[in-house]
Amino acid sequence: DWNKRIEYKPGSGSIPLFPSIHLETCDGPVSSIHTTIELQTNYIGKGCDRETYSEKSLQKLCGASSGAIDLLPSPSATTNWTAGLLMDNNDMIFKFDGKQGAKIPDGIVPKNLTDQFTITLWMKHGPSPGLRAEKETILCNSDKTEMNRHHYALYVHNCRLVFLLRKDFDQADTFRPAEFHWKLDQICDKEWHYYVVNVEFPVVTLYMDGTTYEPYLVTNDWPIHPSHIAMQLTVGACWQGGEVTKPRFAQYFHGSLASLTIRPGKIESQKVISCLQACKEGLDINSLESLGQGIKYHFNPSQSVLVMEGDDIENINQALRKVSYINSRQFPTAGVRLKVSSKVQCFGEDVCISIPDIDAYVMVFQANEPKITISGMDHFARPAAQFESERGVILLPDIRIVSTVTKMEHPVDLKEHDRASNPVVLEEMLHNLDFCDILVIGAELDPEQECLELDHVELQGKHLDATNSTAGYSIYGVDSMHNYEQVLRQIRYRNWYTSATFDRKFRVKCSELNGRYTSNEFNLEVNILHSSNSNFMDHVNHMIVQPQFLQSVHHPEGSISAVHSSVVPSVATIVIIICVSILIFIITLGVYRIRTAHQHSSADNEGSKENEMDWDDSALTITVNPMEKYEKPHQTEEESEEEDIEDEEEDTTSTESDESEEEEEEEEEEEIIIQKGDKQNATRQEQLEWD
Asked: Do residues 321 and 436 share a domain?
């Protein structure tokens, strides 16, 4: 009675794997039962579902001593020595194929590690090829030139882990412990294991997966005589500076490394080591007290393997029903993993019944991806005096960090074709962050005149730390969004020579799970208001304040002129007002010109009409053809009207013409026509009266 597929949703806590399982032997007597339940998690990261925070953040979370130096950081502008190494996805895993090594720059690790220090690393390593395998260097500090002395080193040789420490010569010129050897099967099993080397000279202790191991062999050696030869620290190979024609790498490592750190001056406690290597998923037993008599059980350190033994079938059945799976990660790795195998021993025989393996699997669902949003005032201006003050100006006084997840609602009564229109629900969720960066956009900060500052008292009581540079300010550590908000709201910008600076731009970005989930890029522009009005007007574009944030701008009395105290409108408002003003002016000008042209045309027409109506008959001579009434006896009134219309068209033409001769000829024709008779004069009078 067991299910092949066991579903696990993130945040479900501990769920039983086989709540109804029982072993049926068909009444065959048995003397003992041996059952093994194993989580198969080799395909996940470093062997199981662990938090994927950076080593620095994890150490801060587990309460480790400060001062750890990461020797295999992600490649960046300041940590470029790992840029040429092979990397596996974004799990901070580096693969070494026996052909490459990395030089750690001088100054990263102090030369004197003191008598107490700690080396930690994750390693996956297989058997070395060949009968007489070479040393495979994990970490090595040797002479850079001239000689080939190894000062300290951690390497693998024939599936043995060896730590070398050659002390410098001092008053006592005696043999001292120099090489510490451990022989463990896990060194060459091609699985991930967590190693911690605690050095408290002359005692060196190894922790592997949280378990302590003492060296099986310790050899002594003479101390190294002092010299002025510089030393070279390397990872993945050892630097051979002498005894060769040209210095080069040697003793290459074959395998995978991650989270390699060294902490000078301090050793780690058992509690911190267990926390650093702890799996976030594993097998568990609900209610250990009610397991029953005669049940023996054993977990491996990572709780991925559980072995149960008993001589009573019913007790074993009850114990198996209490076995559960738990994954405490908020965002676990999705996938499948589980295997159960059993052996039964009968009386007087080794194995009498063959029990088939249970081929079941736990399906861990993908968690809803959070959307991290940073909001707040993204633009403000302050007087130069505030930037030059001892405390400077707070950059992010009202910053907010909110994380939401999108969930689809599937009501039962919805039909299949309506699924596409299901409502989307945004739910706010709380989770940790592991770093927030405030980056400078544009030219880096000039340390001689400006800086970003934070009182380190703000970090007390939190799992946070901070680093400062000319490129910006970085806050890191696994802590709540609320604590990150509190610290970000205290970061100040100072500029004690503001005369040449009018604005500064910054960008804020936060992360969860070492970049697996990142926030939006929140951009901030800060404007510096100078005291003179001319400067203000010359650089008005640098001092624009968003309207919704006007209440955040407070100017001290007398610090700036009256022009500054008024609200500066936005660029969009100014442009709209100018455009509307130009449009109104153009329309007004067009209407005015049209009306002027119309009035001028009316005046010309009236002047022409008056000239036509005022006849000067002082010098008028009329000659009448006495034969006209005999030559044209049949002229009708219609013909006279047609002539009048033609004369009218000629009159209109004469008004538009500029030549005086044509006007005079047409006027004479009109004069002759007017004198033809009373009836014709009346008709003509009506035609000459203009509206």
From this structure: no
